Amino acid sequence: DYWKLLPYYQPSISDPEKDLDVKRVLFAFFPTYRDSPLKPMWSRVLAVGDASGIQSPLSFGGFGALTRHLERLSDGISEALEADCLHKDDLAEINAYTPNLSAAWMFQKAMSVRMGQNVDPKFVNRLLATNFDLMDKMGIDTIKPFLQDVIRIDGLFGSLSRAFVADPLFMPQIVSHVGIPALVDWMGHVGMMGLYTALHSGVTPVIKPFVKNMKNDRARFQWNRRMEAWKFGSGCDYILPR
Ligand SMILES: Cc1cc2nc3c(=O)[nH]c(=O)nc-3n(C[C@H](O)[C@H](O)[C@H](O)COP(=O)(O)OP(=O)(O)OC[C@H]3O[C@@H](n4cnc5c(N)ncnc54)[C@H](O)[C@@H]3O)c2cc1C
Question: So which domain of life are we looking at (predicted)?
Answer without folding.
Answer: Eukaryota
